[in-house]
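User: Sequence recovery, please. Input:
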């Protein structure tokens, strides 16, 4: 009886395992497809280029300061505001200057009255010459003092010497300022410079007037420019030379301080495969790779970038018409199954 009971228990256990195994085999796990955008790669043949990181700066920066010390009582502009030539920017307290001017006017009037009274006497010879000289000198000094006092009232107001954009605003209401301290920086940004550091071994390959392509990520645009100036003094630490590229800034989208990528064409020829920069990835070791799609499955393909042309990278290790992932790759791993929702030209 005991043996029969053990046999039944074993039989039930074996049957249960077989059913579980059958269930596992009959319901395989399906891997979810990831939606991606791809690009069909193409061949490229052209000239090499030099890539630099640069900073936008105003073509001209003019510091503006008051001509007299005083307390700021009014500020009429703010940073980033466009101003016209002759526009009033700020005022100082002119109370003392006004009082001084009124006192000077009174003294001028007194000197003028003395002059008018003494002139007939001088003309008929009844006034000593030395006394007449004193009268003339007194009027001249009083007139000069009144003019100086009037100018000091005007010095309490700061005007734009030319049209431009207000850069830094260095004053606040109630603050005492000195003539040597800049109240504002007035910027000329109709045309801007892109300043790039060029290594000494590449400086000889550049020349004034050479064309450049400037990509500004902050505004998502690429602009054209030309080398305006090649520096002659190297940075003592980096041994690089400053090079300025002049760029038209229509619409004032380029702002001083913006970071940009600059490409200057070289003379050597380069050939390879052109792909979008968006396709490039890096693994934990820093190796560049792209995801290549074949039969709805991705493979991580290691690549090496030879050059950057605008928004494209010139690489090796791929074949023409290969499909590389340019969007959605952050969800992928080696062997991921994908669904192509768009092919970018």
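Assistant: Recovered sequence (345 residues):
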């Amino acid at each position: 009886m005991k043996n029969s009971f053990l046999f039944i228990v074993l039989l039930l256990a074996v049957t249960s395992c077989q059913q579980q195994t059958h269930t596992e085999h009959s319901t395989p796990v399906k891997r979810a497809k990831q939606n991606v955008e791809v690009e069909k790669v193409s061949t490229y043949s052209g000239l090499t280029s030099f890539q630099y990181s640069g900073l936008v700066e105003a073509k001209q920066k003019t510091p503006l300061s008051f001509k007299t010390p005083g307390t700021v009582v009014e500020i009429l502009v703010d940073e980033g505001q466009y101003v016209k030539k002759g526009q009033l920017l700020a005022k100082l307290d002119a109370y003392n200057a006004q009082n001084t001017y009124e006192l000077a006017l009174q003294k001028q009037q007194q000197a003028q009255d003395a002059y008018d009274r003494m002139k007939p006497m001088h003309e008929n010879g009844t006034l000593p010459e030395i006394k007449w000289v004193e009268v003339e000198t007194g009027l001249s000094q009083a007139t000069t003092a009144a003019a100086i006092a009037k100018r000091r009232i005007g010095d309490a107001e700061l005007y734009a010497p030319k049209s431009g954009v207000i850069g830094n605003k260095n004053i606040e209401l109630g603050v005492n300022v000195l003539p040597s301290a800049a109240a504002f920086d007035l910027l000329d940004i109709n045309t801007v410079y892109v300043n790039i550091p060029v290594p000494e071994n590449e400086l000889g390959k550049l020349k004034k007037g050479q064309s450049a392509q400037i990509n500004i990520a902050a505004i998502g645009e690429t602009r054209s420019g030309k080398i305006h100036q090649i520096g002659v003094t190297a940075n003592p630490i980096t041994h690089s030379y400053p090079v300025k590229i002049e760029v038209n800034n229509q619409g004032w989208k380029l702002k001083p301080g913006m970071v940009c990528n600059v490409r200057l064409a070289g003379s050597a020829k380069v050939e390879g495969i052109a792909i979008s920069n968006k396709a490039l990835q890096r693994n934990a070791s820093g190796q560049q790779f792209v995801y290549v799609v074949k039969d709805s499955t991705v493979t991580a393909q290691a690549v090496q970038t030879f050059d950057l042309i605008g928004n494209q990278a010139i690489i090796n290790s791929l074949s023409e018409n290969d499909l590389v992932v340019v969007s959605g790759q952050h969800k992928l791993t080696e062997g991921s199954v994908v669904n192509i929702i768009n092919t970018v030209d």
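DSSP finds four helices and 20 strands in the chain.
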